[in-house]
Amino acid sequence: MDTAHPSFPILVALFVLLLGVTSSQPYEEFLQCLEFHDSNITSIVYTRANSSFSSLLESSIRNPRFDTSATPKPLLIFTPRQISHIESAIRCSRAHRIQIRVRSGGHDYEGLSYSTISPSLTFLVLDLRNLRAIQVDVPSKTAWAQAGATLGELYYAIAAESRTLAFPAGMWPTVGLGGHISGGGYGSLLRKHGIAADNVVDAQVVDVEGRILDRASMGEDLFWAIRGGGGNTFGIVVAWKLSLVSVPPTVTLFTASRTAQHKGIELFHRWQHVVDKLPDDLIVMASLSRDNGTILASSNATTIQASFNSLYLGGIEGLIPMMDAKFPDLGLRRENCVEMSWAKSILYFAGFPLNSPLESLLDRTISATGSAKFKGKSDYVKEPIPISGFEGIWEKLKEVGVQTGGLILASYGGKMSEIPESSIPFPHRAGNIYQVEEVAFWVEDGVEAADGYLNWLRGLYEYMTPYVSKNPREAYANYRDLDIGRNGGGGEGDYRRARSWGSSYYKNNFDRLVRVKTAVDPANFFRNEQSIPPLSSWR
Ligand code: FDA
Fold first, then answer.
1. pLDDT tens profile 279-293
2. Counting CB atoms within 10 angstroms of each CB, which of 133, 252, 288, 298 has the fewest?
3. Residue by residue, what is the 3-state secondary structure of 466-491?
4. What DSSP character marks residue 418?
5. Signal sequence: where (predicted)?
6. Helix 510-520 / helix 215-226 crossing angle, nearest 10 deg
7. The pLDDT of residue 350
8. What is the H or E stretch that residue 442 is in?
9. Is residue 99 helix, strand or coil?
10. Whether residue 464 has pLDDT greater than 50
């Protein structure tokens, strides 16, 4: 040990004294344990005493709702640079009973990758920001991508090698590959190629014993579970091997918006009857939103807007006749359309100006909502909602007190209907016309303000009940919603309770997920408020 500096135990004691941490024992021993495994490891450990602790924690908090002084904070943040660091973190966390929350991109809707709803929980954040290497192999149309990479970094790396390769995942560049693929991951290519987890062909995972596993050594059950069965549950995914898909060199996009109530509602109604039956080269997504101008600066005060966003795998010449034949009510004109590469379409959907450089995909600091907090919920629609139903939604959006909120609708059909429900844990396949995200954004601070918006959103969700899937009421795991259920105090698994929210996310795949969890992590080391519990925890 370097004698020019205070010795490590003294630093720890000082830290404990400064922060008044009552349970000094696990913390101190944990750090000593890490140091035992690797003497240089403390340089990637950030304690609360470290001047960059807060900025590091906040840099990947993507929902400002969980960036408050009241939000429970980790004991420390650990930023591994190599796999052996993850192994050490798991071994030491287990030995000293410190829970791990693994964070890749930090987009968890309920903040569970860096926080908890249990104020007394002792946990650390294992932040994978330094593990984000990507290797694209054009001849085999595959890529190995580390879990700490963002979607933008992945798309940029693919585009650097080929304009005609892509990966069918989400549409927001800063979303992390670790959490996104662990929960499914859909984007503009879902009707043609399915979701991200459908297109994973291998993975590297560190399990609860600290072993590094690949597909062959983990076995098909665990490999099945990690492709959509939820993050922070079966192990820590270090990297995914992705099967890339072919796209034409030029794709076409359009956005069409309508503000008049009757026209917007009619279009939505009509949209539902065609979207899942369109050729799978075409996806037309939709949104119905209200904005009072405080968050989306460009929009008019208290405007309710119906918007249709589309991606067509081909040029304008092919799109116009297709839209004229399949969805003439929209009245699409060529001046509404724009052609670009598939990689650039991600920037278009994210709202970047048309002339933005592709390098914008690499910007890990962009924020989808600025300082606005948000909550999302999700549903699946199997029968078209009647016009009267949409009229009610329109009225709900007008309710006093709502700032920005609404519905974001992603159309299904195509490849999504061909993949069996049990192929991977993500079960939402044939029979769905579209997926719904109900969402509310707000800028005010404080619990009272938040409760108002949360109540409005819950009211909208309640209103949707007759129009959406039933028994179970399905939900998308990546739009995590603790309203639909959570595990017992401190994140302890509870099979009976989990079955309710678990059926919503995974339908009949839930029990297989529990069996896998029981086999690979029977003591429930990897857990959070909504992770799959092992059977042992309720016996
Ligand atoms: P984060 O790091 O918060 O992880 C989410 C969960 O996975 C946590 O439980 C975490 O512990 C766990 N986890 C993270 N890394 C892990 C790893 N390496 N191994 C094991 N577990 C791990 N979804 C979608 O399908 N399509 C879309 O277009 C979008 N767009 C979008 C935009 C914005 C602004 C937000 C906030 C969210 C989305 N999403 C989305 C939802 C997104 O897919 C979902 O929140 C993902 O879980 C985010 O993954 P991150 O790694 O970014 O989050």
1. 999 999 999 988 655
2. 298
3. HHCCCCCCCCCCCCCCHHHCCCCHHH
4. H
5. 1-24
6. 140
7. 95
8. strand 434-442
9. strand
10. yes
Closest CA to 75 of 38, 6, 23, 112: 23
Nearest in space to 313 (alpha carbons), one of 350, 360, 270, 345:
345
Contact of 214 with 202, CB cutoff 8 Å: yes
The β-bridge relationship of strands 142-146 and 99-103 is unpaired
- Give the separation between CA 61 and CA 52, rounded to whole angstroms: 15
Name the DSSP letter for residue 318: H
Which residue in 109, 412, 479, 506 is the catalytic one? 479
Q: Is 80 helix (H, G, I), strand (E, B) or coil?
A: coil
Q: What angle do CA 19, 21, 23 make, to 5 degrees?
A: 165
Measured from the CA of 184, which atom of ligand 1 is nearest?
A: 25
Q: What is the pLDDT of residues 6-57, one digit of tens each?
A: 344 444 334 433 443 444 566 788 888 888 878 888 789 999 999 999 999 9
The letter for the amino acid at 154 is L
Q: Half-sphere exposure of 285 toward its Cβ, with a 13 Å CA cutoff?
A: 20
How far is 90 from 525, CA to CA, in rounded Å? 9
204 lines ligand 1 (CB under 6 A): no
| β-sheet bridge partners, residue 123 | 99
In the chain, the amino acid numbered 220 is E
Measure 503 CA to ligand 1 centroid, in angstroms. Answer: 20
Distances (CA, A) of 109 to 105, 155, 450: 11, 23, 15
Q: Residue whose CA is closest, atom 52 of ligand 1?
A: 105
Residue type, 361: L
Query: How many Cβ atoms from other residues are within 10 Å of residue 246's Cβ?
Result: 13
Indicate which residue's Cα is closest to atom 27 of ligand 1.
Answer: 170
CB 323 within 8 A of CB 234: no
CA of 104 to the centre of ligand 1 (A): 7
Per DSSP, the three-state class of 135 is strand
Share of the chain above pLDDT 90, in %: 80
* Pick from 246, 326, 317: nearest CA to 283: 326
Q: Is 186 in the pocket of ligand 1 (CB under 6 A)?
A: yes
- Token duo for residue 274: 């065609």
- Specify whether 27 is catalytic: no
